[in-house]
Amino acid sequence: MVGMAIILAIFFTTLIPLYVYMSSLYGLLSNETNSRRIRDVDRETEDLKLFVEGRSGIGQGSPSISVVLKNTSPLLIRVERIWMMNVAAGSPVGDTPCVNTIVDVPPGWNITVQVNDCTRGFTGRVQFIAVTGRGRLFSSAPIDLFQGRIIAGLFPYTLTVSVINMKRGNEYTIDIQPQGDADIHPRSITYKATASNENISLSFGTTAGTFRVYLKENGVLVSTARLIAPPTNPVDVTLPDYWNVVFILRRVEILPVTIDLEIFAPSRVLEGESFQFQIFLSLPPQAGEDVRINHDRIIQAISLSGDYEQNTLKCLPVEDTLSPGSTKTALICSLTAAELTGNRNFGSITITVGPIQDCGTGEGSGLPYSSDQDSTIIDVKRQRGR
Amino acid sequence: MTYHLTSSAKRHKSRRGDSIVLGELLLFAGMVAIGLALWGFSLSYVAIQSTKLTEDQDKIISQQRSFLVIEAVSLQSNRVWVSNHGLNDVAVISCTIYPKASPSPGIRHNVRGVIVRASDNRSTALTGCEPFPGQPPYIVEVWYVPAHLYNTQDLTRNSMHATVARYEKG
User: Fold this and answer.
1) What is the pTM assigned to this prediction?
2) Is the confidence at residue B1, as pLDDT, over 50?
């Protein structure tokens, strides 16, 4: 009876309160989880679009740039901050938020926020990022600014400058000088030609107006004698009536030069010994292009005489292309010296590579490049003990 | 036939009855003592378990109420701007920036409990992040714990309740 009473006491004073307490804790946790889920759903439902607008005509005193916040979600969105990010650096401009005041955007509304203070004087690509009260980040498309003005609105026209028949290795600079109120961006571009007779076309953002276009080669104004067209340098062009300038340089004629061929071989070998020799090619610096080596022609031009084993000549190609002024190994060959017959203690092998008409082929022109001839004599010595 | 008990037999019977009563009393007292001890043990067990449950629930709920967002990063000035959009204040314990192709370095305990308040609408600039000399793409990881769970004595214990906020660039 007493035991039963104690068991009941334990049951009612400990287990039931513990169960009730656990249930209430579970209820609290469920509520919290539910609240968190609701917050997450609200956060996911947020949808804000950012558009950058600007009026930035030439001659305007202060450009006006604004960010339009468009709420396309069914919830009120509280924008706590707007950052202006430098896209190239990946960091906020000025290390502070662009707009640090709360902006409430009701569902379906567009709110315009002026951002002139952030963009003033800035040149580069920027992106605006809005931080909402629920912790979402929404970004605008990147835009290009030039001294605090939107480039797209600033330069509505495009001037194209082409340069034809550039000389390999030379630097070409296009300088453009706006006349009067006209403006252009950029005002100068330098390009180094990487191939003979290379052509380029470059585009510049401009306003309407007249521009003077200069073409310089290695920093020197290109003379009219070097130009097929236009008849003058610099040349004036007026947009939007005319929108391109084509500089046609006189084609630099490529004349094939003779490739210098050298055989490098050991001066002395033993009878019956296998040895290697190499064939080097040197392209004079006067060559106007790279030359592709014709390995088969060189192998065919190799002639052997003297004390060597027949059919033991084997050659492997090494380098494929010669640049002007470079010396490269074209072939590595192996050959076996013959056993000396009779009482002879010495013999010789003569390796000759005759002149080759098409030792190489010009990569730009496709012209054949010839090579000179070379010859070397290798002494063959009898092995001791024989 | 009638039998009469002798006086010694009567005395013997009376002593035996006393010992039965005494035995029952002792048994009763023992049971009561054991029952009380069991009751006390149960009460203390329930109290300990309730406290532990409460603490565990507090940690879980606090974690659910914490929500830190990385708003912006500047590699040049080595700053990371964060804001707290949860319901609890949080303490930042680690801030790392690493290349996107690399695995996460985990918690470094390089930030000593910078408090980011939930009630503020402002962003907080963290300056203790590991410098990142590279270029995008990179990932920023900020580990944080509910502020009232932040352990100042044993920093490594904070990682038990830590949550991570990530920011990806490039």
Assistant:
1) 0.57
2) no
Interface of B with A (CB under 8 A): 28, 31-32, 35-36, 38-39, 42-43, 45-46, 49-50, 53-54, 57, 60-61, 64-65, 67, 69, 71-77, 79, 81, 83, 85, 121-123, 125, 136, 169-170
Of A264, A259, A335, A266, whose CA–CA distance to A295 is shortest? A259
Q: Are residues A304 and A373 in the same domain?
A: yes
CA pair distance A191, A279, nearest whole angstrom: 37
CATH value at residue A196: 2.60.40
Q: Which residues of chain A have pLDDT under 50?
A: none
Domain co-membership, A225 together with A335: no
Q: Name, in order, each residue with C-beta under 8 angstroms of A11's C-beta and a sequence gap of 6 or more.
A: none
pLDDT, tens digit (0-9, with 9 covering 90-100), for A151-163 = 776 677 899 999 9
pLDDT of residue A229: 87
Q: What was the pLDDT predicted at B144?
A: 95
Q: Are A178 and A197 within one domain?
A: yes
- ipTM above threshold 0.90: no
A144 Cβ under 8 Å from any chain B Cβ: no
A281 and A369 together in one domain: yes
Residues 6+ apart with CB under 8 A from B100: B136, B137, B138, B139, B168, B170
Residues A166 and A225 both lie in one domain: yes
Residue B10: pLDDT over 70:
no
Q: Note down the domain range covering A360.
A: 260-383
* Cα separation, B87 vs B101, whole angstroms: 34
B77 contacts on A by Cβ (under 8 Å): 91, 95
